[in-house]
Sequence to fold (790 residues):
Amino acid sequence: MNKTDKDLLLRLGAGDSIQAICDDAGLTRAEFDQWWADQTTERVPSTEGTRTASDLSGKVEIARDEWGVPHILAETDDDLFFGYGYATAQDRLWQLDYYRRKARGRLSEVIGPSGIEIDTVSHTIGLERTAQENLARFPEKTKRRLQAYTDGVNAFMEETRSSLPIEFDLLGYEPQGWTPLDSVATWQEFRWYLTGRLPIIAIPDLAKRTLGEGALLDDFITGEAEDESIVPKGSYSPSRTGEVPVGEVVGDPDEGIGSNNWVVSGSKSTSGAPMVASDPHIAFGAVSCWYEVHLSGPDINVAGAGYVGVPGVVFGRNETLAWGVTNNICSQRDIYREQEDPDRPGHFRFGDEWRPAKNETVEIAVKGEDARTITITRTHNGPIVDELLPEPLRTTDKVSARWLGTGFGDEITCMLDLAAAGNCDEAKEALRDWIVPTWSYVFGDVEGHIGYQAVGRIPIREQWNREYRPGWDPAHQWSGLIPYDALPALSDPAEGYARSANNRTAPEDYPYPLSGTWSSGHRALRIRQMLEEQEQFSREDFARMQTDTLSMRAVEVLPSLVETLKRSSDPRVLEAAGFLDEWNGRMDVDEVGASIFELFFAEFTTAVAAERFSGDEVPLVAGAISGYSVRLLRKDETGGSPPRNETVVTSMLRAIDILTERLGPEMAEWRWGRIHKIALNHLLSDRGDLSDLLKRGGQPVGGNGITVCNTGFDPNYLASIGANWRHNADLADDPPGLWAVDTTGQSGHPGSPHYGDQLTEWLAGRHHYLPLDSERARAQAASTLTLSPG
Fold:
């Protein structure tokens, strides 16, 4: 790369406009576009031929299919994981570096001030420190897999130093070598991403401070369809057994990710064998956080998706077992309000004593600016986290956070053991030592068994509380952890199916206290409806279910909403009521009723929140009171709060004004797909015109945040989070395989044909096939790269 190219890339990375760059360089836009295409395509690694690697003991084949998905075939497991690291680095080297920097608090070094907040979180929670402590305690077998994966990443990194992924040149730096700690820290940050979510506790506390105790507060913070539990009522006796002390969850390691999933038994499948479906809901992006792969070695033969940077498979199947995962959202953290000694700052009350806190000073390097110095205060409960909360949620008191993830956990070993499990019972045993996050697994095996298992340890809190806890009161400390054998589980349920969708894990008769900010039970309810609507299912039926767009919220609300709107004398409101009256509740791209309902509901929740909250509090609270808003619209009894007929009409008028401004005056043209489009932004999309060069998406997409086809949206109604990976598996397939699709594509290189090439398939609800048979993988390969010792 010459100096001119380097300078142009640095200007793009700094946020300069394409027009300014063209003017200064004397380029037309067409010439710039060709230059950009050349810069991106020349960096795409070759996936054919032969390479040598000194860390290998034998041959490794990386046979990629028409989607660029690698089938990695090796004669030893160490070589297999070397190939896994090598292939991942080929496709996602800059993403690997971004993830580890995010985890280890070093993002600001390369992206500047915009990374300071992320780095502050990492250092405050102590992600790197915990990763170091965990790695030291991993079993030797896991350490070998991590080292082999590391060696593979580094082997490719050294090969490509002269032609790194374009993001490195846009930001003007080169990556350091990968280490096993980078993988563990990356996983640690993912654990925090799924379970930290401090504002979710802070919002109920704000509501309590504003509303006070009572029926109104209870109704305000109660969600939707909360009685739709994964494990049915009546499954438990009231007794508890085997409570585990906090910090004593597992023995020595040598002894032993929102989403949908469901499984049906052979009695409910057309093939006569169990079938599994799963789709995780994570923020959409131009490059997926999942890495699709097939690993075939002497002790493992598994296909599915792993989390980038971590040598495991999160979702997938092997020859005899298939599984799917959702986040079960049982709380693994608490926020404590602290009392500081006014005479001795830095001492915090606990019971009848004042305990000294520990202070830690951290310097954060910032690209283009002076380093920032932060001081982290750690109380007996955990670090002070005031500055990690949005400004409207802060109080005059100092608050700390306790998170189970700061203790030992080895989910990487669990994933490796699960990949080799032979049946449902072995799968449940493989996950016994899983600590963080709390997940819901469904399984099916070739023996005909199906099951469900909640994993991740849940603190026992004898004092129920959805807000901040008094940090000085010993009664609000965790008394232990729910033992693994007492966690919610199902084995061959009589219904012939099991399903989860971030809904309540267990019913009220579960003997241990559960707390969690579970999602609306609407997706779980809809999945149950579909599973009970027909006797047997094919793989095509499962694919159809994964793209189902029926809004159970709309189904609940429409009758009373339309009735209220039809009493209005405003012709625009009456016209909108007519569209809603004819609408079937499906959030399809061509539905006008979908647009009217969603914008109305957003305006209504905002109006309800604004009745008692102010300023920047309103949008935070509005997003958390959907259950309360639905009960108001249904005209249920709601904590002494009257119906809001006038608010309904004014909210509809605001929604009509917004839609008129955005889509024009003709209401019949207000199709949902005109406003609800999938947004696949790059991690550097905030830098000027880079967004247009790196992002993908923009197509109309159905669904919303509570439909099975999950496409939650941002304030502009762009779908920004949802099912970014889908798979299903039929245990009768011979040879065995997995059907899967990603929202984007396998490659993180903007110049690759596999950068975003799966989106069309995902939008259409189609899947591609990943065979577990090595010969079939070789036969269907579009390219093959062979790695040999040398």
Notes: The domain at 43-199+259-548+729-790 is CATH 3.60.20.10 (Glutamine Phosphoribosylpyrophosphate, subunit 1, domain 1). The longest helix spans residues 77-104. The chain has 26 helices and 30 strands. Residues 235-257 have pLDDT under 50 and may be disordered.
